[in-house]
């Protein structure tokens, strides 16, 4: 971000009837410009995370079971520019490779750091990881609250949206799918977005 982004903030403040020279707003254009650089860092391809891979079975044990990772994310609605945020539930069944533990979170953060819709976010994350690790199966469920729905428009507080992407064994094998979705549902009922 640069001086141009600071000018955009100044123009915005003026457009809503604020005085950008008011004491409390003097440094606001710089702070918002800096914040934009951070929360929209996904547009910089240099920030695209590389997934660390390890040979499955290299230590004498081949792992064939489901691996699940959960966490939180923050993104911004591409229609209104306000945040949406929530919980992700990721799972994969390793093929020839297993992945480093922190990489799912890094991939989620990278793709969340753009103007997004939740449906595309789920697909972008799964595409990225699937292309890099070629698992036997991969699944992602995201449950999120959208401030564009809560603070404006219909104003439905604490409402949430759930999206999913199931591929490979999670799509083809009903038992695998049920095991994962059972885990997700148990978490959603105790920890909604």
Short description:
The protein has 193 residues and is an alpha+beta fold. It contains seven helices and seven strands, in the order ααββββαβαβαβαα. It has two domains: 3-39, Orthogonal Bundle (GTP Cyclohydrolase I, Chain A, domain 1); 51-190, GTP Cyclohydrolase I, domain 2 (2-Layer Sandwich), CATH 3.30.1130.10.
CATH fold-level name of the largest domain = GTP Cyclohydrolase I, domain 2
Distance between the termini: 31 Å
CATH class of the largest domain: Alpha Beta
Structural class computed from helices and strand pairing = alpha+beta
* Mean pLDDT figure: 95
Given as residue ranges, the uncertain stretches (5+ residues, pLDDT < 50) are none
Number of domains: 2
- What CATH architecture label of the largest domain applies? 2-Layer Sandwich
Gyration radius, rounded: 20 Å
Q: Give the amount of beta strand, in percent.
A: 15-25%
Main β-sheet, in a few words?
A: 5 strands, mixed
CATH superfamily of the largest domain: GTP cyclohydrolase I, C-terminal domain/NADPH-dependent 7-cyano-7-deazaguanine reductase, N-terminal domain
What does it look like?
The protein has seven helices and seven strands; from the N terminus they run ααββββαβαβαβαα. It has helices at 3-15, 28-39, 103-112, 118-133, 147-150, 169-172, 174-190, and strands at 53-55, 67-77, 83-93, 97-99, 115-116, 137-146, 161-168. The chain has a five-stranded mixed β-sheet with strand order 5-2-3-6-7. Helix content is 39%, strand content 25%. The model has no long low-confidence stretch (mean pLDDT 95). The longest helix has 17 residues, at 174-190. The protein has two domains: 3-39, Orthogonal Bundle (GTP Cyclohydrolase I, Chain A, domain 1); 51-190, 2-Layer Sandwich (GTP Cyclohydrolase I, domain 2). The protein is elongated. A hairpin with a 5-residue loop joins strand 2 and strand 3 (83-93). With 193 residues, it is an alpha+beta fold.
